[in-house]
Amino acid sequence: MNTFAAKDSPSNLVELSVSELSGSIKRTMETAFDHVRVRGEISGYRGQHSSGHAYFGLKDDRSRIDAVIWKGTFPRIKFRPEEGMEVIATGKITTFPGSSKYQIVIESLEPAGAGALMALLEERKRRLAAEGLFDQARKRPLPFMPRVIGVVTSPTGAVIRDILHRITDRFPVHVVVWPVKVQGEGSGEEVAAAISGFNALLPDGPIARPDLLIVARGGGSLEDLWSFNDEIVVRAAADSAIPLISAVGHETDWTLIDHAADVRAPTPTGAAEMAVPVKAELEAQLAGLAARLRGSASRHMDQRRQSVRGLVRALPSLDQLLALPRRRFDEAAAGLGRGLERTTVVKRRSLEQATAGLRLDLLTNRVAERRRFVGEQVLRKERCLERHMLRERSRVERADAALSALPARILGHLQRERLRLSSLARHADTAVSNTLARSRAAIVSQDRVLQSLSYKNVLKRGYAVVRDAADKPLTRAAAIAAGQALSIEFADGRVEVAAGEAPDGGFAPPAAQDVVRKKAAPKASPNTQSPGDPPKQGSLF
């Protein structure tokens, strides 16, 4: 009985709900550990969550504690957390009642000494160098005189003012500034985006594409310059198609972008000095080069002038050079008149010889011969055709007589052959008629040519032909003697005259008592055209 009574007696402990116990533990933890500094290695870091918070863990060789960085705290972090980095986190311990877990809410984060950052920096440097991002073969020379310079830096710091002031003093050019954050969360992404943005500009776009880039920042601690050690910044600098000058920190400060850039400047002011030359020095150098050029040109001209003068003394005078051509020209001019006269005489003789060969009687004889030839051919073809027709007719008649007893089918075939032979006979008659027509047309055409070449057409235009007693045409007055009987042929007939002597030794017209006989006009040939008829063929004269 006593045993059961002791077990059923009520306890002195206060009964709490799960939520009350969890809240009490939370308050106790936050009160006891409201400000702590924890050193450990970052584990399970995957960047910021979509909400903006970051969840990861801190561990050492024996334990692990969950950690969280709220979204509003991230801008105050001086460097980007990375997996495996040893850090010192400052914050408070709190619990998460939903899962009975405790965690540290980080308010500030710093590397666990410079040695840890340097080890991380050396490891990243070796990895990027193994990819060839720092090779000297990738680096390009800077343009001697860029027209546009792009500057990636903070728009509110003293760096941009120093760069602009130095460029203005040395050689004023157009400067395009891409404002970025140079420290804190997101600064590395902004610097990389600025470098890529400058490379994406078009040469003829609304914003001028720079010929040179300067990435600049003032001095600071290793944590302050950590954004320029980001892998994304180093890769953007290595991939830049525009030559890039790195001017991050002071002369003793080194970042990974310095190895990836084409040139590293000790300070931002030094970067401006590397970017542009000194205008005054260039002007002085140009003036010196111009003076040297003028002096060299003057000396060269003096030397060439002396050389030309020496050559001129060795050359003959202008009169000596032109003496022989002038003499040849005079001889050619003197012989030109005689040559023209001789050429005229030769051409006249050639024309007379050619004209003598074109006689009417030759053409008439040739046309007559062609007519006779054509007539003979026609007669021969007609006789041949008649003989052929007779032979064929007799052969057909013999065949008809021999085959009169054949069947009707053979007789029909013979009838078709007879019709075909009759058709061939008609075609032969047509061919002979066409041949005769073509021959007649050719004769008529040649007769027209003969008439066009006849001298009688010339007589119709008022000319006359003088002949001697032997009916030979006379072409020169020197061949006519005084009192010589002459015959003058006009278009409508001939006139017999006698040559008389003129007072000046020439020949005068015959006296009134000279007998003038007019012969009857020769009978016109069938092909001769009367004067009143319209012309059939135009004159060739």
Q: Would you kindly provide a written description of the structure presented here, covering whatever features stand out?
A:
The chain has 541 residues and is α/β, with parallel strands linked by helices. Helix content is 48%, strand content 16%. It has helices at residues 2-8, 18-32, 114-130, 158-170, 187-200, 231-239, 256-260, 268-275, 279-314, 318-357, 360-402, 408-453, 456-459, and strands at 36-43, 54-59, 64-69, 86-96, 101-111, 148-153, 174-179, 212-217, 244-248, 263-264, 465-467, 485-490, 493-498, 500-501, 507-508, 517-519. Strands 1-2-3-5-4 form a 5-stranded mixed β-barrel. A 5-stranded parallel beta sheet has the order 7-6-8-9-10, sandwiched between helices. It is elongated and about 185 Å long.
